[in-house]
């Protein structure tokens, strides 16, 4: 990997925030009385979920589709609250990324929907120079088009970008375009990687860590 880096592209889920799937599943089980298999089938129906994440249907349409599959009725506001409980911000990683913003430009690149994105809106607006969400652009990782859009918005060459994501398939797709990649697991390991690659040269490590 080259040492010239201008941008870091951050994923959201399991990088800048934690995804608490059990909170969502248990919330819908309690609210609807349906078992976990039915809940998962409704929430992650291939056509319905992907259409929502790509911005092709509204939150209200997704809500109605989920209720139809679960054969239940529930208050829309309750639905939104349970759905958004999946997103648990990670203040430590967000603050770490804000420190990195002092030396690199930051783009947030995430498969998400308008409801989940709203939970992190304030943090992302404070952090990101550019934002690329699947529901806004109509493509999802690992589709190559979403990375091409991100590069265009950044005005960056692939070799000047480090993409940080937790999923191997997303990283493999980005890597094929020449983007540098890192599979995230913990902040400590990410910091060690940045240091080993020389990306934190002349920066005070105590401030970052």
Briefly characterize the structure.
The chain is an alpha/beta fold and 209 residues long.
Detailed description of the structure:
- With 209 residues, the chain is α/β, with parallel strands linked by helices.
- The chain has two domains: 7-18 and 89-208, Rossmann fold (3-Layer(aba) Sandwich), CATH 3.40.50.1000; 21-84, Putative phosphatase, domain 2 (DNA polymerase, domain 1, Orthogonal Bundle).
- It contains 13 helices and seven strands.
- It has helices at residues 21-32, 36-43, 46-53, 59-70, 76-84, 91-100, 114-119, 121-127, 134-137, 144-154, 168-176, 187-196, 205-208, and strands spanning 7-10, 17-19, 87-89, 105-110, 130-133, 161-165, 180-183.
- The strands form two sheets. It has a five-stranded parallel β-sheet with strand order 5-4-1-6-7.
- Helix 11 links the parallel strand 6 (161-165) and strand 7.
- Helix 1 (21-32) runs antiparallel to helix 5 (76-84), helix 2 packs antiparallel against helix 4 (59-70) and helix 3 runs antiparallel to helix 4.
- The longest helix has 12 residues, at 21-32.
What is the number of independent domains? Answer: 2
Strand arrangement across the biggest beta sheet: 5-4-1-6-7
| Radius of gyration based on Cα positions | 18 Å
- Taken as a percent bin, the fraction of beta residues is 5-15%
Q: What is the CATH level 1 assignment of the largest domain?
A: Alpha Beta
What does the main sheet amount to?
A: 5 strands, parallel
CATH superfamily of the largest domain: HAD superfamily/HAD-like
Structural class: alpha/beta
Number of helices: 13
Annotation, overall tally of beta strands: 7
How far apart the termini lie comes to: 23 Å
Low-confidence segments, given as residue ranges, are none
* CATH domain fold name of the largest domain: Rossmann fold
Shape: elongated
Helix share of residues?
A: 40-55%
Mean pLDDT: 95
CATH architecture field of the largest domain: 3-Layer(aba) Sandwich
Order of helices and strands: EEHHHHHEHEHHEHHEHEHH
């Amino acid at each position: 990997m080259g040492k010239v880096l201008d941008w870091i592209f951050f994923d959201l889920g399991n990088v800048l925030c934690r995804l608490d799937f059990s909170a969502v599943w248990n919330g819908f089980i309690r609210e609807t009385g349906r078992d976990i298999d039915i809940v998962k089938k409704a929430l992650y129906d291939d056509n319905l979920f992907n259409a929502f994440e790509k911005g092709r249907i509204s939150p209200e349409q997704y809500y109605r589709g989920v209720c139809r599959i679960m054969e239940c009725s529930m208050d829309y506001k309750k639905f939104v609250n349970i759905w958004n409980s999946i997103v648990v911000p990670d203040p430590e990683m967000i603050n770490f990324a804000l420190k990195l913003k002092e030396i690199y430009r930051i783009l947030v690149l995430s498969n998400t929907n308008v409801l989940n994105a709203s939970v992190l809106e304030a943090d992302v607006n404070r952090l990101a120079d550019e934002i690329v969400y699947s529901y806004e652009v109509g493509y999802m990782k690992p589709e190559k088009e979403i990375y091409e859009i991100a590069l265009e918005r950044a005005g960056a060459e692939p070799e000047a970008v480090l993409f940080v994501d937790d999923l191997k398939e997303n990283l493999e797709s980005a890597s094929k375009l020449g983007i540098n990649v890192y599979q995230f697991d913990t902040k400590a390991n990410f910091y060690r990687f940045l240091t080993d690659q020389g990306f934190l040269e002349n920066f005070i490590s105590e401030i970052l860590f």
